[in-house]
């Protein structure tokens, strides 16, 4: 079942939207998002997804694959992010979603194993409901979808929730900060070669003006709704086909412990992939509406 919920809190198109952070922090539905267990990874390497690095088993336990069912076939062609046992966040441009697959690293094996042992088998869960905003297929504004799972995911070392932003992340200037972007998307955009292995790369957040020259007028990003994220010049690392809907996360030291927070969703970029900065949906803008819909 699909539900429409409107995400703009502005009085006019492209207006600067004011979000009351005190209302976000005090929202009663934070009780459904366990800050004591979210954002933990089995590994916290920060190496410097086009030609990215292979992710270790359990390094990104919040990343999921989302699938569309046609007949007896399920096409897992987008990614998403687990925020608790019941909900996943992904991109609206991925289209209708019917299934979620959790705890995956190598698409060719089940279960996945490394030198420390094997993960449990992947979890495949049907989708009960999706909630989406006033997505514009021309401008790609409001490229966000909230998924409610038909039954709860089972947590283990390889299936864990990401943290949603809170505290100083709500107001801090993040330009220049490095984020991590994992995915199973193409590693050769000219041949659209997708790896079986989960890959990731680190990239800096740019000011929004760094993206504007590369996109047509309709696709020029809005700083209230989107991030501009690139890679080191010449590195050719970035999101590509198959990474859509996946997480853009930041690693923070919280009381001496490394935690990961969801800042963005892979939205759009160049057809060549990674030759210019990409555009990511800005989670912070949508927090009030997401919290309203997360009710378990």
TrEMBL record:
This protein's source sits in the domain of life called: Eukaryota
Q: Which organism is it from?
A: Callosobruchus maculatus
The GO molecular function terms of this record are:
serine-type endopeptidase activity
- Subcellular location field: Secreted
* Primary localization class, coarse: secreted
Keyword Isomerase attributed = no
Span of domain Peptidase S1: 49-295
Report the family membership. Belongs to the peptidase S1 family. CLIP subfamily.
| Signal peptide annotation | 1-17
Its cellular-component GO annotations read: extracellular space
Q: Which GO terms describe its biological process?
A: proteolysis
Q: What is this protein called?
A: Peptidase S1 domain-containing protein
UniProt-listed SMART domains: Tryp_SPc
Membrane spanning residue stretches: none
Q: Name one Pfam family in it.
A: Trypsin
């Amino acid at each position: 079942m699909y539900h429409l919920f409107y995400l703009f809190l502005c009085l006019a198109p492209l207006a600067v939207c004011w979000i009351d952070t005190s209302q976000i922090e005090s929202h009663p539905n934070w009780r459904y998002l366990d800050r004591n267990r979210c954002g933990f990874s089995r590994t916290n390497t920060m190496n410097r997804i086009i030609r990215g690095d292979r992710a270790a088993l359990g390094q990104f336990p919040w990343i999921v694959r989302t699938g569309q069912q046609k007949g007896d076939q399920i096409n897992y062609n987008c990614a998403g992010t687990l925020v608790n046992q019941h909900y996943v966040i992904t991109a609206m441009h991925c289209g209708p979603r019917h299934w979620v697959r959790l705890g995956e690293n190598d698409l060719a094996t089940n279960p996945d194993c490394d030198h420390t042992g094997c993960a449990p088998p992947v979890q495949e869960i049907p989708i009960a409901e999706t909630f989406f905003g006033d997505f514009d297929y021309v401008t790609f504004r409001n490229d966000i979808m909230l998924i409610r799972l038909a039954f709860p995911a089972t947590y283990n070392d390889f299936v864990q929730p990401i943290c949603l932003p809170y505290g100083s992340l709500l107001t801090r200037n993040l330009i220049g900060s490095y984020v991590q972007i994992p995915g199973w998307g193409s590693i050769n955009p000219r041949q659209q070669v997708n790896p079986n292995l989960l890959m990731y790369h680190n990239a800096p957040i740019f000011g929004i003006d760094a993206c504007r020259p590369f996109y047509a007028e309709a696709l020029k990003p809005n700083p209230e709704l989107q991030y501009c994220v690139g890679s080191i010049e010449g590195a050719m690392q970035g999101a590509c086909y198959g990474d859509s809907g996946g997480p853009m996360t930041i690693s923070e030291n919280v009381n001496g412990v490394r935690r990961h927070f969801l800042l963005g969703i892979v939205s759009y970029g160049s057809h060549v992939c990674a030759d210019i900065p990409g555009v990511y949906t800005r989670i912070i803008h949508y927090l009030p509406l997401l919290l309203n819909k997360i009710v378990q």
